[in-house]
Fold each of these.
Amino acid sequence: MKLALLLAIAISCSVYSSNMVAAEILPIGLFSSGSMVGWEVKSFERETNYSIEHFDNELVLKAVSDGAASGLFKKTVINLKEYPYLNWRWRINGKLPEGDEQQKEGDDYVARLYVIRSGGLFFWRTKALNFVWSSRGDIDNTWPNAFAPDNNRMVAVRSMHHKIGQWYTEKRNVYEYFKDWLGEEIVEIHAVAIMTDTDNTGGYATAFYGDIYFSRK
């Protein structure tokens, strides 16, 4: 079982309201400041190691997975009508062997970022967009998650064709992705999660994540 399903139960019991400041951006992960405040670990099959490291003359989040599957998640309420864009930076130092990511035995990603809408007490209604670094095909491909096809939508932001050892800056309109997927307006999300996992393929992966934030435009 992957991160989003187990997070659903935890989030449903602890979603909180927040007063949104009328700013252009809403920080989620301030790794460049050396902070991991608010991020919690969820383990599934051994633990991916997450740590703040100096790399390329800055502080970033480093993830190392050796046949492991654990993630970091942060509970936060974001109004997607006001802040629809998810922004982040990431880099990988190697790729996983090409496999069938639509099957359970191939459902591993060297880097991924979740955006989660809680179903509240009805945790089976929880929905999660998974922005992933795919070990296969072209970018912008989407498919249902092998473990939870009704609850998780995978989106290939980077693929096997992109260079390793290079930083990439990403921006995705989460509001529009949810609308395209579910056919309805999703106004709020309730958590963001990071995961580098190799438990199904038994592989090894190293990824780096820069700061994460939502923006108005």
Amino acid sequence: MVIAEDSVLLRMGVLRLLADEGIETAAAVENGDDLLGAVTEHRPDLAIVDVRMPPTFTDEGLRAALAARAAVPDLPVLVLSQYVEERYAADLLADGRGGVGYLLKERVADVAEFIDAVHRVARGGTCIDQEVIAQLMARKRRNPVDALTPREREVLGLMAQGLSNVAIARSLVVSDGAVEKHIGNIFTKLGLEPSGEEHRRVRAVLAYLER
């Protein structure tokens, strides 16, 4: 077993819980780099990983878990966190290899439930908190392209074909100004901040293609 948790109290608490159940911990670390080193060295039956760890406390834990699964194929990973980091959680759960769990710390009802999850994931099963599932399903349903009007989606579709503003205006039989207004609305609804017109067009098209 390897534990990756930046809070020393939580790290030692989980270590003690596992020890009380006769589960040996090969390493208990506080950051993603050390997690990767530990799983590569020890090849554990399971890695228990927090999401937010040093240095930025955003998504280092999940990114390290994905890297660990790549470095040690079929490494079981149990994420134990206060947060649902949707993007990387979806990547972790979607690889189809099993041996993965995601529990929210405040929703673990008792020690027996946690230990059961540890054994289940270590055996190659899954254990996903219902709140995690709900948030990931909501993320799947949310697509900013869906907020566009039919005309804006039409404009974006023509952008995806590589048409210029002038060509789009000619195709839709509207003015150049109308096309510029539609494209401005598209950028706003897709949350694309000003960073160069061409760059935003590419990002908008990618959002359209991923829909």
